[in-house]
């Protein structure tokens, strides 16, 4: 009996050999990543490359089981690889870096892999890896968790829905006036303290001048005027910070919590239906020297909050000078957190809103998503398990079409079902309106430097036309700068070589059918991979099939009445087009994880007969406009 | 179980989970004592998750030595450990996961353990069990009124059996248009009390705090009486996974002498009989699955162990933290389709 005996009983000897010669990419070595690394090793994948940008933090240790107290501040990828040595039997290659960094991880670097496992915690990287998978036609196993909730979705480019085929939850936003004039919940005061006040006082270049056409959430001209004026006055406060004069901190308190509140009270319209705020009194803001440490889980008195505010502002003043006039809010920077906590709580007190503990405010201000070992273990297990089918390594469950494979969501733990622990709908085909996978096909063209200098633009056009069966009438664009290279009445460049028209390694061209019939050949985006290592006569187009599609004018018809009953999601209910303060909307997102959307979808699946029909309706949500999202 | 206050260090370490289940649940977990029987692939996953979560005490009972095969599915042992006691090889690695957890490692055989031994635990998790052993353990846990989880796998196919005897759980959820009502919700579950509270920030939101009484059956009784008749609709019965009758058949066969080897014919015949008892059409059985479950019998496979181990550990944490309604009472997992239904027997 050897270590692989049992695995061979499950997948067979020849498929075991295939697995041993497979190379996979694991993006992320955090919660799901450490679990996946363990699973992939035990499944005997031949080679596993692990990319992670992050270092280890204390709050990771409740679930990222490869990390210890002594590893805090160490890189996750290399530490994880060291931690698995005693049971490892695969070739492991760790990288500490950002997967979106094209200088370290150019597109052709991804090409060495047979399959990609996503174990990411942010939307931007998920979208990026999804795009790479589409370019290279590499299967991607996408996954995510938030607390008890988790999902896993296999993505087979061209065959099944990609990550962008369904709309992701948009960040929750608030109208300006709620934040600046009429807060009614703790979160309003926290957003004010963090995104507005903290940035105004401590961020490097706090310019709040472009307030031209934002949604104020009010038509009251008097109020808008007041908000604008207040912003200018805050620049004055920043001067106090710069002065480093600790004795002037009470001036800040006086301005924020007495003067500004009195100005608000003067706008009587605001308080017709609301409880009026009560400004602090002069005696309250004098502060006292005696200060106890904050208990992270209790709230304390308004008096304590004020004392802490004074103390922490003084501390930050001094830091501001030493840190080159620039401090960023960071939930793990105790000083910045304490400033936001105390400022938010004082404001809450004034507006008769309950104050919150450090623990609670950290969650909201730091956008912390709860995370536990068990959900990560389950989701990573599902992701690694389904890879056997994606790679077609189960003889007794052969995959004839990838839409027969399943994605999964936690059902019981997410309180969506009492009789299924997981729900497992079949994969949907690509959404025909998906801006990433459906409106254009993608591939990589491989060229030797020789060929780049030799092949004429007209040769390239013929090659592409013949290979994918495009008609006579086409257009060719350099997609990176939207430069027209050729179309029906522009053939000036056709006699030049590719290098003469400035195409080279990393260039992306867009080739489109311009015949204008009802059915057109889908456009293709080709990424130039120019490599010395290729034989000198290399000019290879990707072996993909490019389908005929309805031309875009006709593609969004149908199903319109069906859309209406599901398309209205929560973010559309309010007075359309809400805009947050302005800059940096990422900072204010309350749900960066796509999970909420997935959950919504799975919630809709429960209790309905055929998942796929329901899914189609939901995915059409994004079909009601013709907007193409560009990154 | 007593509730003590959590220290600031604990709050920082357990931050991401306290945000999910609260300080009180975390404090409850710290005073809990759990017994895990056998440290195989599923056992490794369970011990990893509950040690990380900050449970008070865990005893692991395992009398095996590390084999080459173990290396293919277990992460607490390495090739240099082959031939050693598994607990000796694994213990430092488990303790390392969370030095705050009190761990005890016991190599004595299960059949030498008596009532007094079991009495010290608040909860028992048994893995790599034959049905006859599981029933013996279950008799003891019933007698001592201790919750029991039994989990096992046959390659890509796995099950969990839960016997909490009787358990009152409390869930909180947002009240929907149709408020929850007191009364039975299924054969094993009954809502006994509902209280409401308003959201402190948004008065229009009302939360219902629902007390549910969960009743359970012993494994022995489940293997005698399990049925889905009158519990599922005809349409649902047609869609029941074949893993259910196949798993029940294998478990029941383990009660017979010399059950180690089970052939296709016998499995086919017995599984068909189980279909009859359950009330599901025999057509759900398919030859390929029957052949595979025979080929893969008793095999532990890492990804399946992660899913099953995670499921059990999560439920253990939920009931120790006294949060959320527990599983009730038989789950099967199909690693091909990722189907994972919960059955109430």
Automatic annotation (TrEMBL), chain A:
<dbReference type="InterPro" id="IPR045886">
    <property type="entry name" value="ThiF/MoeB/HesA"/>
</dbReference>
<feature type="domain" description="Ubiquitin-activating enzyme SCCH">
    <location>
        <begin position="280"/>
        <end position="362"/>
    </location>
</feature>
<feature type="binding site">
    <location>
        <position position="162"/>
    </location>
    <ligand>
        <name>Zn(2+)</name>
    </ligand>
</feature>
<feature type="binding site">
    <location>
        <begin position="121"/>
        <end position="126"/>
    </location>
    <ligand>
        <name>ATP</name>
    </ligand>
</feature>
<feature type="binding site">
    <location>
        <position position="434"/>
    </location>
    <ligand>
        <name>Zn(2+)</name>
    </ligand>
</feature>
<dbReference type="GO" id="GO:0016925">
    <property type="term" value="P:protein sumoylation"/>
</dbReference>
<dbReference type="InterPro" id="IPR023318">
    <property type="entry name" value="Ub_act_enz_dom_a_sf"/>
</dbReference>
<dbReference type="InterPro" id="IPR033127">
    <property type="entry name" value="UBQ-activ_enz_E1_Cys_AS"/>
</dbReference>
<dbReference type="GO" id="GO:0019948">
    <property type="term" value="F:SUMO activating enzyme activity"/>
</dbReference>
<comment type="subunit">
    <text>Heterodimer.</text>
</comment>
<feature type="binding site">
    <location>
        <position position="52"/>
    </location>
    <ligand>
        <name>ATP</name>
    </ligand>
</feature>
<feature type="binding site">
    <location>
        <position position="165"/>
    </location>
    <ligand>
        <name>Zn(2+)</name>
    </ligand>
</feature>
<comment type="pathway">
    <text>Protein modification; protein sumoylation.</text>
</comment>
<dbReference type="GO" id="GO:0031510">
    <property type="term" value="C:SUMO activating enzyme complex"/>
</dbReference>
<dbReference type="GO" id="GO:0005524">
    <property type="term" value="F:ATP binding"/>
</dbReference>
<dbReference type="InterPro" id="IPR042449">
    <property type="entry name" value="Ub-E1_IAD_1"/>
</dbReference>
<dbReference type="Pfam" id="PF10585">
    <property type="entry name" value="UBA_E1_SCCH"/>
</dbReference>
<feature type="region of interest" description="Disordered">
    <location>
        <begin position="551"/>
        <end position="631"/>
    </location>
</feature>
<keyword id="KW-0547">Nucleotide-binding</keyword>
<dbReference type="InterPro" id="IPR030661">
    <property type="entry name" value="Uba2"/>
</dbReference>
<dbReference type="InterPro" id="IPR019572">
    <property type="entry name" value="UBA_E1_SCCH"/>
</dbReference>
<feature type="binding site">
    <location>
        <begin position="28"/>
        <end position="33"/>
    </location>
    <ligand>
        <name>ATP</name>
    </ligand>
</feature>
Automatic annotation (TrEMBL), chain B:
<dbReference type="GO" id="GO:0031510">
    <property type="term" value="C:SUMO activating enzyme complex"/>
</dbReference>
<dbReference type="GO" id="GO:0016925">
    <property type="term" value="P:protein sumoylation"/>
</dbReference>
<dbReference type="InterPro" id="IPR035985">
    <property type="entry name" value="Ubiquitin-activating_enz"/>
</dbReference>
<dbReference type="Pfam" id="PF00899">
    <property type="entry name" value="ThiF"/>
</dbReference>
<dbReference type="InterPro" id="IPR000594">
    <property type="entry name" value="ThiF_NAD_FAD-bd"/>
</dbReference>
<feature type="domain" description="THIF-type NAD/FAD binding fold">
    <location>
        <begin position="14"/>
        <end position="342"/>
    </location>
</feature>
<protein>
    <submittedName>
        <fullName>E1 ubiquitin-activating protein aos1</fullName>
    </submittedName>
</protein>
<dbReference type="GO" id="GO:0019948">
    <property type="term" value="F:SUMO activating enzyme activity"/>
</dbReference>
<dbReference type="InterPro" id="IPR045886">
    <property type="entry name" value="ThiF/MoeB/HesA"/>
</dbReference>
<dbReference type="GO" id="GO:0005737">
    <property type="term" value="C:cytoplasm"/>
</dbReference>
